[in-house]
Amino acid sequence: MRNIILCGAPGCGKGTQSEFIVEKYGLTHLSTGDIMRAEVKSGSELGKLIFSYTGVGHLVPDDVTIRLLEQHLDSLPKDTKGVIFDGFPRTLAQAKELESLMDRRPDDSTAVLIDINVPEDEIIRRLIERGKTSGRADDNLETIKERLEVYHDQTRPVDAYYDSLGKYARINGLGTIPEIFSRICEVLDKLY
Ligand code: AP5
Ligand code: MG
Predict the structure, then answer these.
(1) Among 58, 113, 135, 167, which is least packed by CB within 10 angstroms?
(2) 15 alpha carbon to ligand 2 midpoint, in Å?
(3) Which atom of ligand 1 is nearest the CA belonging to 58?
């Protein structure tokens, strides 16, 4: 599988753009945020642990996150063309773990990290707007600010790491959804 990573601040459009990428390139969407929300909804003990972090905008510990991701990767059909990692890796430790996981799987690799760049005022506007109907516990101003801080402190270093591997592309995340998708296509058309 030739995989890609979609990265960027909360609300930058990772989920929205993934749907278009799935349709055009036939990749499989794997969002750790979606996986975690499903686990919370199930009411399991693991879900309760996860919610103690997601509910306040903090990252779920790396070991829990990596285990969940590996389980989902292992459950994919053998003929999967590639995966869109949406919202993973989010720490340097997760990034290094992902790369060593790829090394251990001879047919698997990460091709590029696409960083969707959106200014903070627009992020806050989008997430407050979505919070009116999303039902997401983390779409309120206080938690959005916390998520942004966590993004700057813990997730930004992942960009530099992928840049050092020669697998980093930054795109402008402002504009209409089709405009942003065409910028992503410019990157992906070279790969698929
Ligand atoms: P996660 O679910 O990944 O949330 P997030 O990163 O905060 O991002 P969002 O899903 O809110 O936004 P998005 O970038 O997908 O944007 P979207 O397309 O929805 O993570 C949630 C939590 O889970 C984390 O805080 C953490 O606790 C935990 N977690 C997840 N992964 C983890 C990990 N790897 N390690 C540890 N913990 C982890 O768009 C947002 C809104 O904007 C939508 O309403 C959309 O319609 C709108 N929009 C999109 N594009 C545009 C546009 N071009 N113009 C105007 N509006 C737009
Ligand atoms: Mg999302």
Answers:
(1) 135
(2) 4
(3) 27
Q: Is the CB of 158 under 6 A from ligand 1?
A: no
Beta bridge partners of 29: 84
**DSSP-derived secondary structure letter, 83:** E
User: For residue 121, how far is its CA from the centre of ligand 2 (angstroms)?
Assistant: 18
- Which amino acid, residue 142? E
With 0.90 as the threshold, say if the pTM is over it.
yes
Q: Is the CB of 16 under 6 A from ligand 1?
A: yes
In tens, the pLDDT along 107-151 reads 899 999 999 999 999 999 999 999 999 999 999 999 999 999 999
Burial environment of residue 34 by CB neighbours within 10 A (0 to 12, 13 to 18, 19 or more): middle
Provide the annotated active-site residues.
Answer: 14, 90, 130, 136, 147
Please tell me the distance from the alpha carbon of residue 113 to that of residue 3, in angstroms, as a whole number: 9
Those residues whose C-beta lies under 8 Å from the C-beta of residue 78, and which sit 6 or more positions away, are: none
Looking at the CA of 114, name the nearest ligand: 1
Chosen CATH of 2-182 out of 3.40.50.300, 3.90.1640.30, 3.90.226.10, 1.10.3720.10: 3.40.50.300
Q: Ligand 1 in contact with 57 (CB < 6 A)?
A: yes
β-pair partners for 68: none
CA 93 centroid distance within chain: 15
